[in-house]
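ok so I'm stuck.
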Amino acid sequence: MEQYLISRVAVPLRWAYVGNYKEKRSCYFGSMGIWCRRERANAGGGCASTDFSQLRLGKNRTSQCRETGSSDRTEIVSRIPLRVLVVLLGFSVTFPALAGFNASAPKSVRRIFTQLAFAEGRLVSYHVLEPGPATIQAFPTSSRTGVLLRFPGCPGLRPVLDDSAAPSASAETLVPDSPIREVFDVTLPDCGTQPTSAAQVQGRSSFWSWRSLGFVNAPGVPAPLGANVPLQQQQCADELWGPVPNAGIVDLFAGPNLSPQHIRGTTLSGIPVAGVQQPQVRRPRIKAYSAGQLVYFISYETRDLSAAGLVSQSIEDQWARTGFPYEQDLFFLAYGRAPLPPNANLPAGTLDSNGVPNDNQAVLNVVKGAPFWQERDYSPLWKMNCLDGGITPTIGPGAPCGDTRFYQVGQPHTKDEVRSTGLPLVNGIFQDINCPILATDVNDDGVFSDNAGSKELVTFPDIDWDGDGLVEDGIQDPDSTLQEDPAQSPFLFDGRDTTLIWCPVTGQSSYDVIRGNLASLHLAAGQVDLGTVICLENDSADTTTAPDHIDREAPQTGQGFFYLVRFAGTYGSSSSGLVRVPSSGDCP
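replied:
not stuck anymore, here's the structure
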């Protein structure tokens, strides 16, 4: 008997015809082994059977095949005898602690930012899960397919993701996340215990009970502030998502100082790119488990989940004619960046290696395919290829390519225009990048909007992943969060000790932290007198009292402590507008 192993899913996929049947296969990689799934349908369209194989344990099971409908995909597979696969699994395939993101990467690198590009002549806005410099990868991404396991018979049990969603604590053990995940409903024998890994789900369920629903783009991301995970795995919303796009800022790759670089670029209809306003899109972070620990993920595109009632058909119609969920070879990035501050220590006006000023020379990236436009070629997984103009120094995310300047190529708008420049296309330092498109300027008017004649804004679905009846949109379900308010800083209690953490405040570089007794609070002379306080930390350069200024005291029975964080000189005001002032003990 032969089994089938897919080493990479990196080509357009369609049904492969075998005798009187048509088949397609997919495999999932995780610590529990390599799971392969083979769907067989009658050549005329009816669904015949589905085979599942768990190769590490040597199991082969058959279950009823779900109706998959029409498909225009083919898979390139390697046919390897089972006995050979077992040897490969024993010696070549290892699964260390995996990484939905690099928990050791600085927060300034570990972020999701918004950028513009041209997709076959139309301007698109998209999120970028920052790959990071080569030496500090932030969101390493793989084109392999992961899994997301739901337990609809146990409302309230959180979903479980494959091990690749779990963050790594060290760059030495960094392994790419598999954000394109097949969604399975799993029946458990009881609902008493929350499974925390795919291996636990496998041990507690029969594979006969695994029902495939479809796919979701669900990358693992840092936890919200105050989550029950190590502090290095937490990140404020504003830190993760970066500055929200606004007028005058068209490229948030490294902050607003880069906006002048696109002043020369125009759309096909001649509209200056520098004046285009980007849509504001933030996705909720959703609580789940992976590799035995609490994790968070976000969700973007979905496929086939409408049949299970998880999303509406109108939402999935946005991707019905696209290449999602599979990666496409047609996607590439044509990086070209002017080394303006803060990207490089080169002042504006400095000459590059061709003797031409750096400033205002960069071009927008070019990709192929987008929702609502050239749809067939769209997938959120982009393969990184670069247009090499031979200019030094190179910059961008880890200097992935030789730079290209506007004076060399103008502004290409399509893949063919990029190729016609004659400059070489070279591989970037990252194989895959997760870049879901938010909007497509279909009518080429320089505005991302929905109107009677054009659908341009993507609607990403919010899903009830645990079946408790609450949509996890960051508002309705407490197991999801959209953003944190810096004024609502969480307190972390470790038995007797108290640690404070808070979100950074824009423009502030230091903070003071005090503790007081609730019994001392009173009104006096038109202000809130805080009484005698204790300065826990003075001029803190970070946003936590850990590790050196943790409060080791606890209030006596019947008493309570309050804590305040000061920036910009004051401790703020009460709800009635009265300023808060300590009577003594304040930080200097």
